[in-house]
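Chapter summary example: a protein plus zinc ion.
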Amino acid sequence: MDPTALLINKVLFPAWVVKNASTRLSYATEFERTQFWSADAIRELQWRQFRRLLQHAFDHCAFYRRTLAAAGIEPGDIRSLDDIHRLPTVTKQEIQESLDDLIADNVATPLLKDMTGGSTGSPMVFYYDEDRLDSRNAAAIRHNRWTGWDIGDKMGVLWGSPRDLAEPPSMTARVRDWILDRCVVAFDASSIDDERMRAFHTRLHTHRPQFLLAYANTLALFARFVQREGLRPHRPRAIICSGEVLTDESRALIESTFGCRVFNRYGSREFSVIASECSHHEGMHVNAENLWVEVVTGGTPSVDTEGEIIVTDLKNLAMPLIRYRTRDVGVLKPSRCACGRGLPLMDLKGGRVTDFLVAITGEKVSGIVLATYAITGVPGIRQVQFVQSRRDCVTARVVRGSAWSDDSARTLLARIRTFLGASMTIQLAFVEDIPFEASGKYRFSISTVAAS
Ligand SMILES: [Zn+2]
């Protein structure tokens, strides 16, 4: 075993946990155990948490008192998991507009602020506490371990870059990240050209990460480059794809290029890992100790039928998210996995679909990066879609919310130019709605421009 990995796994990570009084490892140990509970026992665990969450939300969040009253429901009316669908759903838009009423009035600990750029085009601010951060990260550790990864193993990432949105990390933050993630090589999905892909290929061979974490489209683009150039691919032990829809074609291309299995993952900023594949690849196991995941078709919960994925965070007491509409489309599978885990299985059928946009310089910019970073925190954006039909011009179609102002427009234009170039012509087109396609896919970015 890699001695550095051993040092992190056995000494540094446990020491960090003790120093920070973190519950991350104890949650991870708990999830390693509960994943093999029977399906019924896991449902019982979910029900206990849901009942506590609902009563807590009713007692401490004005938003839920109001919406439950409007629906004529009291917490006691929900007597089992089968009753949950009677509760109203909550949309990103409602959360944006009722943020203060969603934060529990009895929260004692400092809250962590987080934001989603809106993979489905709608940004949102939300909060959770330190304990929820630990259980979120512990779930990610558990799901990562299904790929053969363990704490301390070298990871390479092909992901977005926040660019100018964040301060450069301090030395302490860099050491912490190295202990917690050990990301040894990173490829910036917001600025892709042949030269950068060649440099990344060289760095992969230098640092030899055993695992890759990537946006599916960006890794597929890199795989095509490796094949086209006749390069000798780096062979990791496994690859995790997340952040956007993984097509069968991309999976086949990535697996044949890099000679290892792809583990598909469905996650979101709001909930961390929602579901991911185990080594049997028979669907994605739901992170069920932390989340209650429903698929709703025509207003009723369904199994084995495609519908909208609705998620309840069972452990976020600071800002309860109960029946949150993801606008992603999926299906809950009635089958059990041969791995023996009692966690239910699901598949993702539609959701975020992005084209690469082309910057003035000719670099490709991952649509998911724009989705994550260009619109995060811009006030008053309800929904956005980027359309590029000319090399030097991009149209941002924006559905405005009440907080939209001239400042929002200025901030959005500046952000887009950070990624696409200062001389890019950007048109803002205000629209009433940006519909989902019939397939359930949401096209965050559309490009008819062929990148050179
Ligand atoms: Zn399994």
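Key point: The first strand starts at residue 112 and ends at 116.
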